[in-house]
């Protein structure tokens, strides 16, 4: 009985799509200096986004996934492209025509210039073949902006300059 149960469990695990995937990134500022870390973990139907950011002004800041995994500090992170939006939706968590897959709630930075990142997204995925897959041919970046996102205005929520950027990468095998 125990052998049959083990074989059945193993067959079920092999037949199920992998959902325990992870990703990571190092945030850099516009001078190219390290300014935090980001970790992503795929759960059942959503991705947990954790980490920390430093060197920011206190208050709320827009934070989004962007279309290209390229954080060229000399170009103020314009190399990361626009917001990650494979479904071609409008911008904003409060937009009835939205949301971009890369839209996230604002990040709150403390008086010390630090922010703990603890977010969840059900519009991105670390599982190949799923909608919102972040490891497409040109990758994806996470960008923190100077101003809060108004969660309505297309295409960027009036979130201002790009201050920090991290290329999202799969962990080394």
What does this entry look like structurally?
By secondary structure, the chain is mainly β. It is globular and about 40 Å long. The longest helix is centred in the first third of the chain and has 14 residues, at 2-15. The chain has a 7-stranded antiparallel beta sheet, with no helix packed on it. 8% of the residues lie in helices and 30% in strands. It has one helix at residues 2-15; strands at 22-29, 34-42, 47-53, 59-61, 63-66, 107-109, 115-121, 141-145, 162-167. It has a single domain (19-167), classed as Sandwich (Immunoglobulin-like), CATH 2.60.40. Residues 1-20 have low confidence and may be disordered.
Main attributes?
173 residues; Immunoglobulin-like; single chain; 1 helix; SOD_Cu/Zn_BS; Superoxide dismutase family protein; 7-stranded antiparallel sheet; SOD_Cu_Zn_dom
What is the element layout, followed by pairings?
Blueprint: H1 2-15, E1 22-29, E2 34-42, E3 47-53, E4 59-61, E5 63-66, E6 107-109, E7 115-121, E8 141-145, E9 162-167
Antiparallel strand pairs: 1-2, 1-9, 2-3, 3-7, 4-6, 5-8, 8-9
- The run of helices and strands is HEEEEEEEEE
**Could you tell me the radius of gyration in angstroms?**
18 Å
| Structural class by secondary-structure content | mainly beta
Query: Helix count, per DSSP?
Result: 1
CATH topology, which one? Immunoglobulin-like
Which regions have little confidence, pLDDT < 50, spanning 5+ residues? 1-20
Percent in helix: under 10%
The total domain count is: 1
* Sequence of strands across the biggest β-sheet: 5-8-9-1-2-3-7
> What's the total number of strands?
9
CATH class descriptor? Mainly Beta
What percentage of the residues does DSSP assign to strands (E)? 25-35%
Query: Per the principal axes of the C-alpha atoms, what is the gross shape?
Result: globular
N-to-C span: 36 Å
Q: Let me know the CATH homologous superfamily.
A: Superoxide dismutase, copper/zinc binding domain
What CATH architecture do you see? Sandwich
> What can be said about the biggest beta sheet?
7 strands, antiparallel
Overall mean pLDDT:
86
């Amino acid at each position: 009985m125990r052998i049959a149960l083990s074989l059945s469990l193993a067959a079920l695990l092999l037949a199920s799509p992998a959902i325990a995937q992870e990703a990571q990134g190092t945030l850099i500022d516009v001078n190219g200096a390290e300014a935090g870390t980001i970790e992503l973990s795929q759960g059942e139907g959503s991705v947990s986004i954790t980490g920390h950011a430093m060197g920011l002004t206190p208050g709320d800041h827009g934070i989004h996934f962007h279309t290209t995994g390229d954080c060229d500090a000399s170009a103020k992170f314009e190399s990361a492209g626009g917001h990650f939006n494979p479904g071609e939706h409008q911008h904003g968590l409060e937009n009835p025509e939205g949301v971009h897959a890369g839209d996230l709630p604002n990040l709150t930075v403390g008086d010390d210039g630090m922010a703990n990142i603890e977010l969840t997204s059900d519009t991105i995925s670390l599982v190949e073949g799923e909608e919102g897959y972040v490891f497409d041919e040109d990758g994806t970046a996470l960008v923190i902006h100077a101003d809060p996102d108004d969660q309505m205005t297309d295409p960027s929520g009036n979130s201002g300059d790009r201050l920090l950027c991290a290329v999202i990468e799969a962990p080394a095998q």
